[in-house]
Write a structure and sequence with these properties.
The protein is an alpha+beta fold. A hairpin with a 7-residue loop joins β4 and β5. α4 packs parallel to α5, α5 packs antiparallel against α6 and α7 packs parallel to α8. The longest helix has 54 residues. The relative contact order is 0.07.
Length: 490
């Protein structure tokens, strides 16, 4: 017995469909066979009637004989082997019969009135009133010389035919039973071929639900089951990778927070002890201030990421001149570039590049990109910021000739918490935040890189052809969940 579940449903539905189809075929087949056998008997008698009745009427004449002698001659001419021939009058009374047995009662079967009404041959199938034997009666009218109407009724037994039909029915039912057994076996095998992989996948997913992400779906399953198993395995690998990234992030952020906190704590305790001249005090306070700013930057980065993940990022949308924004960014990072003797060059193909966006968030995007370019560039190299118009877009490409990124890491560099160089510091969230901010502005961020050659980061933003009519004083109050369309959620 198959236990309840999808396996039983498959077997039952498959079995029922095949069973109903076979029953339909069986019924149609049996009706066709029955009709074939009965029609063969009827056609045989009908053909005999067509051939003999006319010759009988021509060769005999009622005027030359008495009625009974005339009917006897008709009976002798029309008789058919294995069929009883009865000559009846118009009321159904049997006048003479080839069996020689008289009939006390008139024949009242439906073939009599049908033959009289139509003047042609009619058929009746039923049981003989006296013996109960199954018979077929074929009746036709006789009207010699336009005189009295007689009926010639051929009665033949169909018991052997019915026995043959019963045998055929039993054989066909046995064949159907054998087919159903085969169908049952095949359907159980089919159900097991589906249920077993599903049970295996369920067992593996149950272990994964308990935290065992080292287990995998084993087996070369095909079609949707194979896709399901592959998806589950991929999900487990992604969870393991995400957990590893999370662990690396926790380790990295702990280090990033520990370093400035250690400096702040050390210098605060040193300054608190007193006895230092003003220059040393100034140096200590500068370090405390610098490390505090560093902590604030880390916290703000985490807060930005949290807001983006929860769709709570505010955007104050307005007209932004991208070329002027990039000039500010170059000035902001100039000192850092000078420390590595890196040259920054702005190459703008035109004077005006208006876009519609949040100036502070766009500044955050390009600061992060340029800062990364400086960080991973060689000394005495050049970083070029290309700005061009392209079919309703403004494309800004930050191109460096630094260490570059290999193909494997390039695919993951925009993933959250991922860092190509874990020793370089940071949270691994910069490019993930940058990507989402660009998408908030309905733009695109793309990266191309070659290890040892350099990296190009391209940002495409929609070109502002016509400045939208927006009240500037209300822009800083727009949030993602308010009605105006100039504030965008992530």
């Amino acid at each position: 017995m198959i236990k309840k579940g999808i396996g039983r449903q498959i077997v039952m539905h498959y079995f029922i469909v095949i069973f109903l189809a076979l029953m339909l075929v069986e019924v149609v087949f049996l009706f066709a066979i029955r009709a074939y056998y009965y029609d063969t008997i009827y056609n045989s008698i009908s053909s005999h009637i067509d051939v003999t009745v006319r010759s009988a009427l021509i060769s005999t004449s009622a005027g030359d004989y008495g009625e009974m002698e005339y009917l006897s001659q008709i009976l002798a001419l029309l008789k058919l082997p294995e069929a009883e021939l009865q000559i009846l009058d118009g009321k159904g009374e049997v006048l003479i019969s080839s069996s020689g047995f008289p009939s006390d009662k008139p024949v009242q079967t439906s073939d009599i009135p049908q033959a009289l009404a139509s003047g042609s041959t009619s058929k009746w199938i039923g049981r003989q009133a006296t013996t109960g034997e199954p018979v077929m009666a074929v009746t036709t009218t006789l009207q010699p010389g336009g005189g009295q109407v007689y009926l010639a009724r051929f009665v033949t037994s169909i018991e052997k035919v019915n026995q043959r039909l019963t045998e055929i029915t039993l054989v066909s039912m046995a064949i159907i039973a054998a087919i159903l057994v085969i169908v049952l076996i095949v359907s159980i095998g089919l159900a097991n071929s589906i249920v077993r992989p599903i049970n295996n996948i369920i067992a593996v997913s149950a272990q994964m639900a308990k935290g065992r992400f080292d287990v995998r779906v084993e087996g070369d399953y095909r079609y949707e089951l194979g896709e399901m198993g592959s998806t589950l395995n991929y999900m487990a690998e992604e969870i393991v990778r995400s957990n590893q990234i999370k662990d690396d992030f926790i380790s990295s952020i702990s280090h990033e927070l520990r370093t400035p906190l250690t400096s702040i704590k050390g210098w605060s305790e040193t300054l608190d002890s007193g006895g230092y001249d003003p220059d040393e005090t100034r140096i200590g306070m500068g370090i405390i201030s610098k490390e505090t700013e560093r902590l604030i930057g880390l916290v703000e980065e985490l807060l930005d990421f949290s807001k983006l993940q929860q769709n709570e990022m505010k955007l104050t949308m307005a007209h932004v001149e991208l070329k002027e924004l990039l000039k500010e960014i170059v000035l902001n990072v100039w000192a850092k570039a000078e420390l590595k003797k890196v040259q920054l060059r702005l190459d703008a193909d035109g004077d005006s590049f208006p876009v519609y966006g949040d100036a502070n968030r766009l500044k955050q995007v390009f600061l992060n990109i340029v800062d990364n370019a400086i960080k991973f560039s060689h000394e005495s190299s050049v970083i070029v910021l290309h700005v061009v118009r392209e079919d309703g877009w403004v494309r800004t490409a930050v191109q460096d000739s630094g260490i570059g990124i290999d193909e494997e890491n390039l695919k993951r560099v925009k993933d959250r918490f991922f860092q190509v160089n874990t020793q370089g510091g940071g949270t691994g969230l910069g490019l993930a935040i940058t990507q989402q901010l660009v998408e908030l502005h309905e733009g695109e961020l793309n990266m191309t890189s070659e290890l040892g050659v350099g990296t190009t980061v391209s940002v495409k933003l929609p070109l502002l052809e016509e400045e939208p009519k927006v009240e500037e004083e209300s822009l800083d109050e727009k949030t993602f969940n308010e009605e105006p369309s100039d504030t965008k959620p992530i």
